[in-house]
Specification:
- The protein is of the alpha/beta class.
- Helix content is about 50%, strand content about 10%.
- Helix 3 crosses helix 4, helix 5 runs antiparallel to helix 6 and helix 6 packs parallel to helix 10.
- It is globular and about 60 Å long.
- The protein starts with a helix and ends with a helix.
- Bound molecules: zinc ion.
Length: about 325
């Protein structure tokens, strides 16, 4: 064989090898279950239990207000291809998701279909209204507090629900999903011990939050929310309400005001100036900051910020 022939032979071999590799890769992609989730938190949980048998796509970004996501055509494409759609539920996505599901024309993921999973069904839901609350009043939490994923216990329930669903969809991989869930459960349990130890000195610490995003978080970690910048969930601050809140913060000597990254800081900062409370931007979702790459890191990040602020302000 001449040098040239040898080269041609190697090139042909390389091309064949690449073709085989690409073929194998696309065969693997084809066999993976395609999961769409409305939020990055659910995507992280789905990835944790689904491992390499799933391909996961979140719709909202971690720094966006999950109540108000601007619909894009790319979202419809994600939904059109999905075998499974996992939603937060409790009307969190009601302002933007229903038309996207409809336009996807994907029968598998329509509400009530086998490929539609409402993660709130197995979650501990707080603030379920007892009286008549409708969205007509502007309240965006008419079915209870939808920010339940900020209790790691609820993350565990959601991961289990996703693992069970995947096992029913791909019974041959049921043992794999069960093992992945068991591993996640163990890692989350270890993290919870760490978080409980970190937060133990601060039980009963009083805070104010902008939106009612932190009900499950504060319930889980023993904090006491004494007021909100929003008069009602989804209703922007009013001067009257802000004055009342300032008085209450002073009266109860609250040192920390938690704000989600997607709210205007003007009112929180003026409250901070009036009262001396520290305005702390905490991230409610995975991907809200670059280092928050998964569900467990979300709590590491937020609790780290919170404890640093508590120490800095001498809140406790
Ligand atoms: Zn909300």
């Amino acid at each position: 064989m001449s040098m040239f022939d040898q080269y041609r032979f190697s090139a042909a071999l390389l091309a064949l090898t690449l073709a085989l590799a690409v073929g194998t890769a696309s065969a693997q992609t084809a066999s993976k279950l395609k999961i769409a989730t409305t939020t990055t938190d659910l995507a992280s949980l789905a990835q944790a239990v689904g491992g390499d048998r799933v391909e996961v796509n979140a719709i909202a970004r971690g720094y966006q207000d999950p109540h108000f996501v601007e619909a894009k055509p790319s979202f419809i494409l994600k939904l059109a291809k999905a075998d499974l759609l996992v939603v937060v539920g409790r009307e969190l996505e009601i302002g933007w998701l229903p038309p996207l599901i409809q336009q996807s024309r994907n029968a598998r993921i329509q509400v009530g279909a086998d490929g539609y999973l409402d993660a709130s069904l197995t979650a501990k839901i707080l603030e379920i209204p007892t009286g008549q609350i409708t969205r007509a009043m502007g309240d965006v939490h008419p079915s209870g507090n939808p920010h339940y994923w900020l209790d790691p216990g609820n993350g565990r329930h959601a991961a289990k629900a996703i693992a069970d669903k995947l096992s029913r969809m791909a019974p041959a991989d049921a043992a794999y999903f069960a093992a992945r869930y068991a591993d996640f459960d163990k890692r989350l349990g270890e993290a919870e011990k760490r978080w409980d130890a970190l937060m133990a000195p601060y039980k009963g610490l009083k805070v104010v939050t902008y939106h009612r995003s932190w009900a499950n978080f504060t319930d889980r970690f023993g904090l006491d929310v004494i007021g909100y910048v929003e008069p009602r969930p989804g209703i922007p601050p009013s001067p009257r309400h802000t004055l009342d809140l300032i008085a209450e913060i002073k009266r109860q000597n609250v040192k920390i005001l938690l704000v989600e990254p997607y709210f205007d800081l003007k009112t929180p900062q003026s409250i901070g100036r009036e009262t001396g409370a520290k305005v702390l931007v905490m991230l409610p979702s995975v991907g809200g900051e670059k280092e928050i790459t998964d569900y467990i890191k979300l709590f590491d990040y937020d609790l780290g910020l919170l404890v640093a602020a508590i120490k800095e302000t001498g809140a406790k």
